[in-house]
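Consider today's protein:

***
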Amino acid sequence: MKAKKSMMKRVNKGSTQLTTAAPKDYEAAADFLPLEGGPARKLPITENSENKSTVLYIGRIPHGFYENEMEAFFKQFGEIKRIRIARNRKTGKSKHFGFIQFASPEVAKIVAETMHNYLLFEHLLQVQIIPPERVHPKLWKGVNRFYKPLDWVRIERKRHNKERTFEEHKKLVDGILKRDQKRRRKIEAAGIEYECPEIVGSDVPAPKKIKFED
């Protein structure tokens, strides 16, 4: 009972102090009173980190809208520092998302508000501000390197025209004959009367062994 009475006295004392405080003092007071008792506390003032961010994420980038095109389009808003489009390491093709950094955070905010859900080549661009603490430290690594697309025509031509050994050539011909037999069976199963032409060059003679006299 004594503990209960003392607690009620503290509660009544705190309520009287709040009621007798002046309006200015009440506004300048803390934001909340802790339930466990003690002096009033004030919430820490947190500054919005997005107001200082200059990096934007851009998603659903259409085909053909690459680094040069992005720089020419977005420079109408303000100065651009860096642009990066995510690409496949093997093929070099775009992954349809990238990042752009402006010199001013105000410009970045305007671009995010203006270009989000903007219809471009039948794609709705997804533009979002990335807070500074969420920007990866290796995001701009190698961004100044010149990207050179792979010449897949030259690579395929070289693979097709390469010199093959007898075993490699025999394996290639066996694969062609196997696919041809499978195609013939499908035609017969469909009830179509058709004589498939024979494959020329399927009979490859084995190389002769040459014995040199001493």
In short: The chain is about 35% helix and 15% strand. Confidence is low (pLDDT under 50) at residues 17-27.
